[in-house]
Amino acid sequence: MKRRPTEESTGNLGFALLGLLARRRSTGYELARRMERPVGYFWSAHHGQIYPELARLEARGFVRHTVVEGAGPRPTKRYAVTAAGRKALREWVVGELEPQPVRDLETLRLWNIWLVEPGAALELVQKLRQDHAARLAAYESELAEVRDSPEAHDPRNPMFASRLTLEGGVRSRRAALEWCDWMREQLESAMHDQTSAH
Amino acid sequence: MKRRPTEESTGNLGFALLGLLARRRSTGYELARRMERPVGYFWSAHHGQIYPELARLEARGFVRHTVVEGAGPRPTKRYAVTAAGRKALREWVVGELEPQPVRDLETLRLWNIWLVEPGAALELVQKLRQDHAARLAAYESELAEVRDSPEAHDPRNPMFASRLTLEGGVRSRRAALEWCDWMREQLESAMHDQTSAH
DNA sequence: GCTTCATATGTCAATATTGACATATGAAGC
DNA sequence: GCTTCATATGTCAATATTGACATATGAAGC
């Protein structure tokens, strides 16, 4: 059986890059940095993955590049999304919701805390709580920057979508913080019951 | 340079399998089904990944198998976690929190909804809301089954950990539902403003 | 003048994941 | 008797991801 030379469908990383480029044209290097923040909040990729994916997107006609002056040892390429790329992204956004594989290390850890002493479990919960609190603070400060601008209230402006996703991040981290506090109470009362039973 | 014949560190799938086996010994087939539910709520893997991973865990001494009667064309193997495997899992549970790569397709879609008409965006939000509502119902019914049992209040019992993770699922899905309702309001009021501006 | 760092683009080996293919048995329903 | 399905374990090719290696420039600080 012959294999076709790639070109099937755009993977999810491709849509992340198209979404980035639909907001602003960028070089691969800039995309890698924008992928850390803000897109890194919901999608992550290294530059080692980004450069080949850009080449694939270009082969499919979804992006095109122009060479600009830059500091690297090779020509610096600035990419922009094409009409076809924008269309593909739009169609994906409202397309079928396919079940995505779940990879939630935090919950996997907690599902196994019965194996360790309640004191160690409590420490883990407190560490997780700190992480959530730090993320919440970052989201809140970013949200404060966009919340009141008129663009963030125009549903066809990228800032509108940024506002919605940041709001979701804030809400989910607040819920996680409350969950951590609830878990702490559960562990503490269980430890207390154990002690007083003696 | 020679490559060592695997055996470095257990991947995350390995810990998911060890956690499953620490609760109850199982065949690979049973693990694949238990991986769908309940572990599938926070970690997923196909049987094509599970069988090779079991072999690697066995090579490292973390699990061992006995052959039992079964229906398949090959001998059916029942795996159990060893003391070394249990220790490795315990150490991982309270070990360093490494930043995990994020892959959140739902947020990636929403981050791009400015590209589509508000009406289509609204439809997407409603579809996402339905998904969250269905998941919430599943978590709530599972939580109701364990919540009141005494084992679920003993921090060294697996049911305790199940209860904590289910509670987290319920809380996060409730927050997501509220977020969806909030997004609907945002979209509807933006659409209304647009109409009345004419 | 020298070191360090941000800029900049790429490749490659190792590993992880997906989805299909392969195969065989026993039980249930028709 | 035949079909279908759950049981059961595995392999393999394609794809995705990670992390390291490679390389070169200009600016800043010493």
From TrEMBL, chains A, B:
A family per Pfam: PadR
SUPFAM superfamilies noted in UniProt: Winged helix' DNA-binding domain
Coiled coil: 122-149
Domain Transcription regulator PadR C-terminal: 103-188
Source species, domain of life: Bacteria
Stored InterPro entries: Tscrpt_reg_PadR_C, Tscrpt_reg_PadR_N, WH-like_DNA-bd_sf, WH_DNA-bd_sf
Residue ranges constituting the Transcription regulator PadR N-terminal domain according to the UniProt record: 17-91
PANTHER family membership: TRANSCRIPTIONAL REGULATOR YQJI, TRANSCRIPTIONAL REGULATORY PROTEIN
Keywords, ordered alphabetically: Coiled coil
Protein name: PadR family transcriptional regulator
Keyword ATP-binding tagged: no
